[in-house]
């Protein structure tokens, strides 16, 4: 079973045979060319500094690259990078990539233990980190590392050869979220980054006039890759916001912004915020990182006058599918493959398998995990279970590892969650399997709800809409579901009350 062709995403008049997603070798080379061509163009808005132009980014990144080289770093060295959204962060990121260094994005909220896992595996030569406490940990973990804040407060030196990378050179080493185990480093090369950004440039009609409201964390490929990388490739600009605040987003939307990228929890707050209709002024609102329910999709359309474009990607593959810019943005689906992406479902399990120029080559120094992740034809096993409509739209119905097998029947948590979320007393819900000697696993619901929540009423409600084996047999009320910073539920942290 195959999905519809990615050519359906292309703007009118573009021949698919002429599309070469890797013609431009590296993102930093494209960025530098854009800034030289329009040096006075406003590119990055820092909450404290104001607007930073292309000429300023060229000069500041070249100076930062010189300081990194003077500290002994050479192309191929790995560099930890963390911090809030700022011009200094962008300059450090750009300088490292222009120098051929490999950036290891780090969540600035990590504990010392979490940072140590990445340091042990990535063996970085340098660390550009905020907050200051994290710099102290880095020094303790490896005293040989060059450690600095995002301002790269190091001695000056001449810049090395810049923008000289080939498409196969490593560029980014993000670590998987570790929601189900030890994080693994997904080594992405310059060609991967270019291909993904070029695909969304074409599919979403991104261009120099676009101004993106960017409040997603920049340690994740959503904010960094889909957001920052994509807008810089297209010659556009970004309004950096250090945290998500509905009023600030809506104010920017009513001003001169053109795009907003967010996660479902952000859109839920925007849909219920005073003046939410201001979001309708934007030409594109995209959503990813976690499933957007069909009900929330409709609520945003009604209250914000905006039809959100849901898409799908992964750390290892970058962007994979998207609802169309022109055409039906179908609620509950993630659209169909983006340019360059081959996608099909495993005939036996329904797992989504993908191949294309944005898909990584493997996990850093983990040949065992890499071999397990690809099939004999070179398709990456996403671990997501999907369904395809007759006209090729992809719906993600669950994770292969989250599949619950109860009494010999397969239960996909998302289906049950979508049913229970429609109950008026349920704010949100997560379905997991609890070990059972009788059933193998018991379908268990963790419910975030109002105080007057009645479990028996919810069980009755589920019984009206789900076959018996899919209905939760255990229900636990929680004040809040555990989530990572992108709103994804951490199922492994769900434990029954004492």
* Overall structural domain count: 2
According to CATH, what is the topology of the largest domain? Rossmann fold
Q: What is the straight-line distance between the termini?
A: 46 Å
- Gyration radius, to the nearest Å? 23 Å
Kindly state the number of beta strands: 25
For the report, how would you describe the main beta sheet?
9 strands, mixed
Low-confidence stretches: none
Under the CATH scheme, which class of the largest domain? Answer: Alpha Beta
State the share of residues found in helices, binned by percent: 25-40%
3D structure, described in words:
The protein has 498 residues and is α/β, with parallel strands linked by helices. It folds into two domains: 389 residues, Rossmann fold (3-Layer(aba) Sandwich); 91 residues, 2-Layer Sandwich (GMP Synthetase, Chain A, domain 3). 29% of the residues lie in helices and 23% in strands. The chain has 13 helices and 25 strands. The protein has a nine-stranded mixed beta sheet, sandwiched between helices. The protein has a four-stranded parallel beta sheet with strand order 4-3-5-6, sandwiched between helices. A four-stranded antiparallel beta sheet has the order 16-17-19-20. The longest helix is centred in the N-terminal third of the chain and has 17 residues. The N and C termini lie far apart (46 Å).
What is this structure, in a nutshell?
With 498 residues, the protein is of the alpha/beta class.
């Amino acid at each position: 079973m195959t999905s519809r062709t990615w050519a359906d995403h292309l703007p009118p008049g573009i021949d698919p045979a002429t599309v070469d997603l890797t013609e431009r070798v590296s993102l930093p080379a494209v960025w530098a060319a854009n800034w030289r061509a329009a040096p006075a163009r406003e590119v990055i808005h820092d909450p404290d500094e104001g607007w930073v132009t292309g000429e300023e980014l060229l000069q500041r990144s070249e100076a930062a690259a010189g300081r990194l080289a003077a500290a002994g770093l050479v192309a191929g060295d790995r560099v930890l990078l963390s911090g809030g959204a700022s011009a200094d962060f962008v300059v450090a990121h750009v300088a490292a990539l222009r120098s051929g260094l490999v950036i290891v994005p780090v969540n600035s909220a990590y504990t010392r233990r979490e940072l140590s896992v990445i340091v042990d595996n990535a063996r970085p030569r340098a660390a550009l980190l905020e907050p200051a406490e994290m710099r102290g940990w880095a020094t303790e973990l490896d005293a040989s590392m060059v450690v600095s804040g995002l301002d790269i407060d190091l001695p000056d030196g001449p810049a090395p050869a810049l923008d000289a990378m080939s498409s196969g050179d490593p560029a980014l080493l993000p670590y998987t979220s570790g929601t189900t185990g030890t994080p693994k480093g997904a080594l992405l090369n310059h060609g991967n980054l270019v291909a993904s950004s070029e695909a969304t440039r074409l599919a979403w009609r991104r261009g120099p006039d676009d101004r993106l409201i960017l409040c997603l964390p920049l340690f994740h490929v959503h904010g960094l890759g889909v957001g920052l990388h994509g807008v810089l490739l297209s010659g556009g600009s970004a309004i950096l916001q250090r945290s998500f605040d509905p009023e600030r987003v809506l104010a920017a939307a009513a001003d001169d912004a053109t795009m907003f990228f967010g996660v479902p929890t952000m859109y839920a707050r925007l849909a219920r915020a005073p003046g939410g209709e201001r979001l309708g002024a934007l030409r594109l609102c995209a959503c990813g990182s976690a499933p957007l329910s069909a009900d929330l999709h409709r609520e945003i359309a009604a209250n914000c006058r905006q039809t959100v474009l849901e898409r799908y990607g992964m750390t290892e593959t970058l962007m994979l599918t998207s609802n169309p810019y022109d055409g039906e943005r179908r609620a509950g689906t993630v659209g169909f493959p983006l340019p360059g992406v081959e996608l099909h479902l495993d005939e036996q399990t329904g797992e989504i398998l993908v191949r294309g120029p944005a898909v990584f080559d493997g996990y850093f120094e983990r040949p065992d995990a890499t071999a397990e992740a690809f099939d004999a034809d070179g398709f990456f096993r996403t671990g997501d279970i999907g369904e395809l409509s007759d006209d090729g739209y992809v719906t993600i119905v669950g994770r292969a590892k989250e599949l619950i097998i109860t009494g010999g029947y397969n239960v996909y948590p998302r289906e049950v969650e979508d049913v229970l979320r429609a109950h008026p007393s349920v704010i949100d819900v997560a379905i997991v399997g609890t070990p059972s000697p009788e059933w193998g696993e018991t379908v268990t619901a963790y419910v975030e709800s109002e105080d007057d929540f009645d479990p028996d009423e919810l069980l009755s409600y589920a019984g009206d809409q789900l076959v018996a084996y899919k209905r939760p047999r255990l229900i636990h009320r929680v004040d809040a579901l555990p989530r990572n910073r992108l709103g994804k539920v951490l199922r492994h942290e769900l434990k029954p009350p004492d």
